[in-house]
Design brief:
single chain, about 325 residues, alpha/beta, 7-stranded mixed sheet, two-stranded parallel ribbon, 12 helices
Length: about 325
């Protein structure tokens, strides 16, 4: 008996409570359904926090994606062939995955992130006092966007992060940008600013990156219109380190790097292998600025020590692993 031409609609009509077997990717009603908890939720030890009763907790476990980033990933461009798109359209398993994503998006209130900024000024976690261990650290995902140096050419963040020690600011509004300034600007954190300037004069690896993530096409267009003004506020050598990211940042990526509230600002300390070694959110609390400063100094010391000893130097296409993964 040949399958019905409308069989691809079956996944959309199945009850939501059925589960998917991890081995065969088929519906398995006998297996109990496990609650879907995001990576950030697991790390912060919270589940559907109530903003009125939630108190930011220390970030005790590494955050990030489990695989090394590669240029070209998360570009937001659908590179599938027509045949692959057709197969995905009629795929039973892909319908189940898509349905789960749509259910999750529909359950999220539109103004949820804005309402959470009224409590603790949008802060979702307390920064760690030290750095995450290298062997346990996870990776900062690749993002694609326009830089001030080349506003018409999409650029990847991974080549800029490789073989450098980077303090990465991620925000999506002017208010969130000012929150990240609390960690990295000269007025609020002069010690870190002096350390960056000193390392720059010595030709060291320390740098600052800014990622302005604007999913809304209208807001992205407005930011792009004021690129000239943003250029004047920054030095010419920093133009290639400012990214306007307009697509490709999924909810899974946000959860992996603990962006629980997209309207708040976040700061990450990323090492030369694109691993997240420290993270902070919203405005800096007491001790968080000192934690970022000490974590940066420790990474600089490790960089200098491994460079002098020449450990794990790789020549050729794998030059991204210049130093031993430790």
């Amino acid at each position: 008996m040949s399958p019905s031409p409308f069989s691809f609609l079956v996944p959309c009509l199945l009850p939501i409570r059925q589960d998917i077997c991890s081995q065969c990717m088929r519906v398995s009603p006998q297996q109990p359904r496990r609650s879907i908890v995001s990576t950030a939720t697991k790390i912060l030890n919270i589940e559907k926090p109530n903003p009125e009763s939630y108190t930011p907790k220390p970030l005790l476990r590494p955050i990030g994606v489990p695989y090394p980033p590669k240029p070209g990933e998360n570009s937001g461009i659908d590179s599938r062939t027509w045949r692959e798109k057709r197969n995905d359209m009629f795929s039973y398993d892909k319908h189940l995955i898509r349905r789960e994503k749509l259910t999750k998006q529909a359950a999220k209130p539109y103004f949820q992130d804005w309402s959470r900024t009224n409590y603790h000024r949008g802060k979702t976690f307390i920064a760690p006092s030290g750095i995450f261990r290298a062997e346990k650290s996870l990776y900062f995902p690749n993002m694609v966007g326009a830089t001030l140096a080349a506003p018409k050419i999409p650029s990847d963040t991974t080549p800029v992060l490789r073989d450098r020690i980077s303090i990465v600011s991620v925000y999506s509004s002017r208010w969130a940008e000012l929150q990240t300034h609390d960690f990295v600007q000269e007025k609020s954190h002069p010690e870190l600013t002096k350390l960056i300037a000193q390392d720059e004069r010595q030709g060291g690896p320390l740098q600052r990156l800014e990622l302005n993530v604007e999913d809304n096409w209208m807001k992205g267009l407005i930011v792009r219109t004021f690129m000239g003004k943003i250029k004047k506020e920054r030095r010419e050598q920093d133009w290639g380190r400012y990214f306007l990211v307009r697509r490709g940042v999924t909810d899974e990526m946000r959860e992996a790097i603990a962006i629980v509230n997209a309207k708040s600002g976040y700061v990450y300390l990323v090492d030369w292998l694109c691993r997240i070694r420290w993270a902070g959110s919203a405005n800096a609390h007491a001790g968080e600025k000192e934690g970022l400063f000490m974590a940066t100094k420790r990474l600089l010391e490790t960089w200098g020590r491994e460079k002098e000893e020449g450990r794990g130097v790789v020549v050729g296409p794998k030059a991204a692993t210049t130093f031993k993964d430790r």
